[in-house]
Amino acid sequence: MEYRHVGKTGLKISEISLGAWLTYGGSQDTDSTRECVSKAIDLGINFIDLADVYSGGNAEKVIGELIQEENYNRKDLVISSKVFWPMSKGVNDRGLSRKHILESIDDTLKRLNTDYLDIYFCHRYDRYTPLEETVQAMSDLVDRGLVHYWGTSVWTAVQLERAFWMAKTLGCHPPVVEQPQYHMLNRYIEMPHGVMETCKRNGMGIVCFSPLCQGVLTGKYNEGIPTESRGASTDWLKWDLNPANIEKVKQLQPIADELNVQMSQLALAWILRHEEISCAITGATKPQHITSNTQASGLKLSDKTLNQIEEILNNKPDIHGIYHPPW
Questions:
Q1: Has 72 been annotated as catalytic?
Q2: Which of 3, 24, 54, 149 is catalytic?
Q3: Model confidence over 120-168: pLDDT tens digits?
Q4: If we measure between CA atoms, which residue out of 91, 158, 83, 95 comes closest to residue 126?
Q5: Residue 97 domain flag
Q6: What are phi and psi of 321, to 5 degrees?
Q7: Which of 73, 218, 263, 266 is least crowded, fewest Cβ atoms below 10 Å from its Cβ?
Q8: What DSSP character marks residue 175?
Q9: Overall pTM surpassing 0.70 (yes/no)
Q10: Where are the alpha helices (DSSP H) in the chain?
Q11: What is the CATH number of the domain that holds 202?
Q12: HSE on the CB side for 110, CA within 13 Å?
Protein backbone atom coordinates (compact mmCIF):
# COMPACT_ATOMS: atom_id res chain seq x y z
CA MET A 1 0.00 0.00 0.00
CA GLU A 2 1.18 3.49 -0.81
CA TYR A 3 0.15 6.60 1.09
CA ARG A 4 -0.47 10.21 0.16
CA HIS A 5 -0.73 13.48 2.02
CA VAL A 6 -4.17 15.02 2.37
CA GLY A 7 -3.56 18.22 0.44
CA LYS A 8 -0.84 20.31 2.06
CA THR A 9 -1.39 18.83 5.52
CA GLY A 10 0.99 16.42 7.20
CA LEU A 11 -1.73 13.75 7.39
CA LYS A 12 -1.13 10.63 5.29
CA ILE A 13 -3.85 8.22 4.19
CA SER A 14 -3.83 5.04 2.13
CA GLU A 15 -4.38 5.48 -1.61
CA ILE A 16 -7.20 2.97 -1.37
CA SER A 17 -9.53 3.50 1.57
CA LEU A 18 -12.65 1.89 3.00
CA GLY A 19 -16.10 3.46 3.02
CA ALA A 20 -19.22 2.30 4.88
CA TRP A 21 -22.05 3.74 2.79
CA LEU A 22 -24.98 1.30 2.34
CA THR A 23 -23.02 -1.58 3.84
CA TYR A 24 -21.58 -1.69 7.35
CA GLY A 25 -24.28 -1.46 9.98
CA GLY A 26 -26.83 -1.87 7.19
CA SER A 27 -26.86 -4.54 4.48
CA GLN A 28 -23.80 -6.30 5.90
CA ASP A 29 -23.92 -8.30 9.14
CA THR A 30 -21.33 -7.82 11.86
CA ASP A 31 -19.28 -10.89 10.98
CA SER A 32 -18.85 -9.95 7.31
CA THR A 33 -18.09 -6.37 8.32
CA ARG A 34 -15.41 -7.64 10.71
CA GLU A 35 -13.85 -9.71 7.94
CA CYS A 36 -13.74 -6.73 5.57
CA VAL A 37 -12.32 -4.30 8.11
CA SER A 38 -9.73 -6.83 9.26
CA LYS A 39 -8.63 -7.52 5.69
CA ALA A 40 -8.44 -3.80 4.93
CA ILE A 41 -6.22 -3.06 7.92
CA ASP A 42 -4.05 -6.11 7.24
CA LEU A 43 -3.45 -4.83 3.69
CA GLY A 44 -2.43 -1.36 4.84
CA ILE A 45 -5.67 0.61 4.57
CA ASN A 46 -5.62 3.18 7.37
CA PHE A 47 -8.53 5.46 6.35
CA ILE A 48 -12.12 4.46 7.19
CA ASP A 49 -14.81 6.86 5.97
CA LEU A 50 -18.17 7.10 7.73
CA ALA A 51 -21.13 9.43 8.18
CA ASP A 52 -23.69 9.76 10.94
CA VAL A 53 -26.49 9.18 8.43
CA TYR A 54 -25.05 5.88 7.16
CA SER A 55 -27.54 3.26 8.35
CA GLY A 56 -28.95 5.78 10.81
CA GLY A 57 -25.81 5.83 12.94
CA ASN A 58 -25.28 2.07 12.92
CA ALA A 59 -22.23 2.26 10.64
CA GLU A 60 -20.40 4.40 13.20
CA LYS A 61 -21.52 2.14 16.05
CA VAL A 62 -20.44 -1.08 14.34
CA ILE A 63 -17.03 0.27 13.35
CA GLY A 64 -16.49 1.66 16.85
CA GLU A 65 -17.30 -1.71 18.39
CA LEU A 66 -15.00 -3.56 15.99
CA ILE A 67 -12.08 -1.25 16.69
CA GLN A 68 -12.51 -1.89 20.39
CA GLU A 69 -13.13 -5.64 20.11
CA GLU A 70 -10.18 -6.25 17.78
CA ASN A 71 -7.98 -3.95 19.86
CA TYR A 72 -6.83 -1.90 16.88
CA ASN A 73 -4.49 0.97 17.73
CA ARG A 74 -6.60 4.10 17.31
CA LYS A 75 -3.51 6.15 16.46
CA ASP A 76 -2.84 3.94 13.44
CA LEU A 77 -6.26 4.73 11.96
CA VAL A 78 -7.66 7.78 10.21
CA ILE A 79 -11.39 7.87 10.89
CA SER A 80 -13.77 10.36 9.35
CA SER A 81 -17.46 11.06 9.65
CA LYS A 82 -19.90 13.63 8.33
CA VAL A 83 -22.68 15.96 9.42
CA PHE A 84 -25.61 17.52 7.52
CA TRP A 85 -28.44 15.11 6.75
CA PRO A 86 -31.41 14.71 9.12
CA MET A 87 -30.93 12.22 11.94
CA SER A 88 -34.47 12.54 13.28
CA LYS A 89 -37.68 14.49 12.67
CA GLY A 90 -36.39 17.30 14.87
CA VAL A 91 -36.42 20.66 13.10
CA ASN A 92 -32.84 21.40 14.26
CA ASP A 93 -31.47 17.88 13.82
CA ARG A 94 -30.16 18.62 10.33
CA GLY A 95 -28.03 21.05 8.34
CA LEU A 96 -24.87 22.90 9.35
CA SER A 97 -26.05 25.17 12.13
CA ARG A 98 -23.76 25.53 15.13
CA LYS A 99 -26.34 23.70 17.24
CA HIS A 100 -26.54 20.70 14.92
CA ILE A 101 -22.78 20.48 14.39
CA LEU A 102 -21.91 20.57 18.10
CA GLU A 103 -24.61 18.09 19.04
CA SER A 104 -23.80 15.78 16.12
CA ILE A 105 -20.09 15.50 16.92
CA ASP A 106 -20.95 14.42 20.47
CA ASP A 107 -23.30 11.72 19.16
CA THR A 108 -20.78 10.52 16.56
CA LEU A 109 -17.94 10.24 19.10
CA LYS A 110 -20.18 8.26 21.46
CA ARG A 111 -21.17 5.83 18.71
CA LEU A 112 -17.56 5.38 17.63
CA ASN A 113 -16.33 5.20 21.25
CA THR A 114 -13.45 7.54 20.48
CA ASP A 115 -12.30 10.91 21.79
CA TYR A 116 -11.77 12.50 18.39
CA LEU A 117 -12.24 12.30 14.64
CA ASP A 118 -9.34 12.70 12.28
CA ILE A 119 -11.57 14.34 9.65
CA TYR A 120 -15.11 15.76 9.97
CA PHE A 121 -16.92 16.53 6.72
CA CYS A 122 -19.77 18.92 6.04
CA HIS A 123 -21.79 16.36 4.09
CA ARG A 124 -23.35 18.95 1.77
CA TYR A 125 -23.52 22.74 1.56
CA ASP A 126 -26.23 24.31 3.74
CA ARG A 127 -27.75 27.28 1.94
CA TYR A 128 -30.03 28.01 4.89
CA THR A 129 -27.23 28.57 7.42
CA PRO A 130 -24.78 31.50 7.18
CA LEU A 131 -21.42 30.16 6.02
CA GLU A 132 -19.76 32.19 8.77
CA GLU A 133 -21.63 30.16 11.39
CA THR A 134 -20.62 26.84 9.84
CA VAL A 135 -16.94 27.73 9.38
CA GLN A 136 -16.66 29.05 12.94
CA ALA A 137 -18.32 25.95 14.40
CA MET A 138 -16.10 23.53 12.49
CA SER A 139 -12.99 25.53 13.39
CA ASP A 140 -14.01 25.49 17.06
CA LEU A 141 -14.13 21.68 16.96
CA VAL A 142 -10.51 21.69 15.79
CA ASP A 143 -9.53 24.07 18.59
CA ARG A 144 -11.25 21.81 21.13
CA GLY A 145 -9.38 18.74 19.88
CA LEU A 146 -12.57 16.91 18.95
CA VAL A 147 -11.61 17.04 15.27
CA HIS A 148 -8.11 17.19 13.79
CA TYR A 149 -9.18 18.47 10.36
CA TRP A 150 -12.45 19.41 8.74
CA GLY A 151 -13.56 19.11 5.17
CA THR A 152 -16.46 19.30 2.74
CA SER A 153 -18.35 16.87 0.57
CA VAL A 154 -19.93 17.64 -2.80
CA TRP A 155 -19.33 21.40 -2.54
CA THR A 156 -18.95 23.47 -5.69
CA ALA A 157 -15.79 25.39 -6.55
CA VAL A 158 -17.52 28.66 -5.65
CA GLN A 159 -18.64 27.30 -2.28
CA LEU A 160 -15.11 26.10 -1.54
CA GLU A 161 -13.64 29.48 -2.41
CA ARG A 162 -16.17 31.20 -0.15
CA ALA A 163 -15.29 28.86 2.72
CA PHE A 164 -11.60 29.67 2.35
CA TRP A 165 -12.28 33.40 2.21
CA MET A 166 -14.53 33.17 5.26
CA ALA A 167 -11.99 31.16 7.25
CA LYS A 168 -9.26 33.65 6.42
CA THR A 169 -11.49 36.60 7.33
CA LEU A 170 -12.48 35.07 10.68
CA GLY A 171 -9.03 33.69 11.50
CA CYS A 172 -10.45 30.16 11.50
CA HIS A 173 -9.09 26.79 10.45
CA PRO A 174 -10.00 26.30 6.77
CA PRO A 175 -11.28 23.06 5.24
CA VAL A 176 -8.42 20.83 4.10
CA VAL A 177 -10.19 18.16 2.06
CA GLU A 178 -13.14 17.78 -0.32
CA GLN A 179 -15.01 14.52 -0.92
CA PRO A 180 -16.69 14.50 -4.34
CA GLN A 181 -17.94 11.72 -6.55
CA TYR A 182 -15.36 10.94 -9.21
CA HIS A 183 -14.81 8.08 -11.61
CA MET A 184 -14.25 7.37 -15.30
CA LEU A 185 -17.90 8.02 -16.15
CA ASN A 186 -18.37 11.15 -14.01
CA ARG A 187 -15.61 13.73 -14.41
CA TYR A 188 -17.29 16.97 -13.38
CA ILE A 189 -14.52 17.87 -10.89
CA GLU A 190 -12.09 18.16 -13.83
CA MET A 191 -14.01 21.10 -15.31
CA PRO A 192 -11.84 24.18 -15.92
CA HIS A 193 -11.98 26.47 -12.88
CA GLY A 194 -13.80 23.66 -11.11
CA VAL A 195 -13.43 21.60 -7.97
CA MET A 196 -10.09 19.91 -8.72
CA GLU A 197 -8.40 23.16 -9.72
CA THR A 198 -9.84 24.99 -6.71
CA CYS A 199 -8.66 22.30 -4.32
CA LYS A 200 -5.16 22.35 -5.76
CA ARG A 201 -4.93 26.12 -5.56
CA ASN A 202 -6.04 26.14 -1.92
CA GLY A 203 -3.99 23.15 -0.82
CA MET A 204 -6.97 20.85 -0.27
CA GLY A 205 -6.82 17.12 -0.74
CA ILE A 206 -9.49 15.17 -2.62
CA VAL A 207 -10.86 11.87 -1.36
CA CYS A 208 -13.33 10.65 -3.96
CA PHE A 209 -16.27 8.37 -3.35
CA SER A 210 -17.90 5.88 -5.72
CA PRO A 211 -14.65 5.43 -7.72
CA LEU A 212 -16.05 2.29 -9.37
CA CYS A 213 -19.44 3.83 -10.15
CA GLN A 214 -21.09 1.46 -7.65
CA GLY A 215 -19.77 -1.57 -9.48
CA VAL A 216 -20.39 -0.53 -13.07
CA LEU A 217 -16.64 -0.13 -13.61
CA THR A 218 -15.90 -3.64 -12.34
CA GLY A 219 -17.54 -5.09 -15.43
CA LYS A 220 -20.07 -7.14 -13.46
CA TYR A 221 -22.97 -5.53 -15.34
CA ASN A 222 -21.52 -6.10 -18.81
CA GLU A 223 -23.77 -9.06 -19.52
CA GLY A 224 -26.82 -7.93 -17.58
CA ILE A 225 -27.82 -7.22 -13.99
CA PRO A 226 -27.00 -10.04 -11.55
CA THR A 227 -29.94 -10.91 -9.30
CA GLU A 228 -28.13 -10.22 -6.02
CA SER A 229 -26.32 -7.07 -7.19
CA ARG A 230 -26.96 -3.51 -6.07
CA GLY A 231 -28.25 -2.69 -9.52
CA ALA A 232 -31.09 -5.17 -9.02
CA SER A 233 -32.09 -3.99 -5.55
CA THR A 234 -31.73 -0.18 -5.43
CA ASP A 235 -32.35 2.93 -7.53
CA TRP A 236 -28.90 4.36 -6.83
CA LEU A 237 -27.60 3.19 -10.21
CA LYS A 238 -30.46 4.47 -12.36
CA TRP A 239 -28.32 7.27 -13.88
CA ASP A 240 -25.17 5.25 -14.53
CA LEU A 241 -26.40 1.79 -15.44
CA ASN A 242 -27.18 2.54 -19.07
CA PRO A 243 -26.16 1.03 -22.44
CA ALA A 244 -23.69 3.81 -23.30
CA ASN A 245 -21.71 3.34 -20.09
CA ILE A 246 -21.78 -0.45 -20.33
CA GLU A 247 -20.40 -0.22 -23.86
CA LYS A 248 -17.52 1.94 -22.63
CA VAL A 249 -16.68 -0.59 -19.92
CA LYS A 250 -16.71 -3.38 -22.50
CA GLN A 251 -14.27 -1.42 -24.66
CA LEU A 252 -12.02 -0.73 -21.65
CA GLN A 253 -11.81 -4.40 -20.67
CA PRO A 254 -9.21 -5.34 -23.34
CA ILE A 255 -6.92 -2.61 -21.99
CA ALA A 256 -7.14 -4.14 -18.52
CA ASP A 257 -6.53 -7.59 -19.98
CA GLU A 258 -3.45 -6.38 -21.82
CA LEU A 259 -2.05 -4.97 -18.58
CA ASN A 260 -2.98 -8.19 -16.74
CA VAL A 261 -5.09 -6.31 -14.21
CA GLN A 262 -8.77 -6.39 -13.32
CA MET A 263 -11.13 -3.78 -14.75
CA SER A 264 -11.67 -2.36 -11.26
CA GLN A 265 -7.93 -1.95 -10.76
CA LEU A 266 -7.62 -0.10 -14.06
CA ALA A 267 -10.43 2.27 -13.02
CA LEU A 268 -8.82 2.97 -9.63
CA ALA A 269 -5.36 3.52 -11.12
CA TRP A 270 -6.90 5.94 -13.62
CA ILE A 271 -8.23 8.02 -10.72
CA LEU A 272 -4.96 7.94 -8.81
CA ARG A 273 -3.07 9.29 -11.83
CA HIS A 274 -3.93 12.76 -10.48
CA GLU A 275 -1.60 14.06 -7.78
CA GLU A 276 -4.52 16.12 -6.47
CA ILE A 277 -6.30 12.90 -5.45
CA SER A 278 -5.40 11.77 -1.93
CA CYS A 279 -7.32 8.50 -2.10
CA ALA A 280 -10.17 6.56 -3.65
CA ILE A 281 -12.80 5.48 -1.12
CA THR A 282 -13.99 2.00 -2.02
CA GLY A 283 -16.84 -0.06 -0.65
CA ALA A 284 -16.55 -3.80 -0.11
CA THR A 285 -18.91 -6.58 0.89
CA LYS A 286 -16.30 -9.34 0.73
CA PRO A 287 -12.62 -9.47 1.76
CA GLN A 288 -11.61 -10.45 -1.78
CA HIS A 289 -12.99 -7.13 -3.04
CA ILE A 290 -10.55 -5.34 -0.75
CA THR A 291 -7.66 -7.54 -1.82
CA SER A 292 -8.37 -6.70 -5.44
CA ASN A 293 -8.85 -2.98 -4.86
CA THR A 294 -5.66 -2.52 -2.87
CA GLN A 295 -3.63 -3.95 -5.74
CA ALA A 296 -4.40 -0.76 -7.66
CA SER A 297 -2.21 1.20 -5.24
CA GLY A 298 1.05 2.08 -6.95
CA LEU A 299 -0.20 0.93 -10.36
CA LYS A 300 1.06 3.45 -12.93
CA LEU A 301 -0.53 3.84 -16.33
CA SER A 302 1.57 4.84 -19.33
CA ASP A 303 0.73 7.79 -21.54
CA LYS A 304 -0.18 5.32 -24.27
CA THR A 305 -2.66 3.57 -22.01
CA LEU A 306 -4.13 6.86 -20.79
CA ASN A 307 -4.61 8.01 -24.37
CA GLN A 308 -6.37 4.76 -25.25
CA ILE A 309 -8.68 5.20 -22.28
CA GLU A 310 -9.38 8.83 -23.20
CA GLU A 311 -10.43 7.84 -26.71
CA ILE A 312 -12.94 5.37 -25.32
CA LEU A 313 -14.33 7.60 -22.58
CA ASN A 314 -14.55 10.72 -24.76
CA ASN A 315 -16.03 12.67 -21.85
CA LYS A 316 -13.33 15.03 -20.61
CA PRO A 317 -14.89 18.38 -19.63
CA ASP A 318 -13.53 21.38 -21.48
CA ILE A 319 -13.92 25.13 -21.48
CA HIS A 320 -16.38 24.98 -24.38
CA GLY A 321 -18.80 22.50 -22.88
CA ILE A 322 -20.95 22.18 -19.80
CA TYR A 323 -20.82 18.98 -17.79
CA HIS A 324 -23.85 18.22 -15.63
CA PRO A 325 -23.32 15.75 -12.78
CA PRO A 326 -26.20 13.26 -12.60
CA TRP A 327 -27.47 14.28 -9.16
A1: no
A2: 54
A3: 999 999 999 999 999 999 999 999 999 999 999 999 999 999 999 999 9
A4: 95
A5: yes
A6: -120, 170
A7: 73
A8: P
A9: yes
A10: 30-42, 58-69, 98-112, 131-143, 157-170, 195-201, 230-233, 243-259, 263-272, 287-294, 303-313
A11: 3.20.20.100
A12: 7
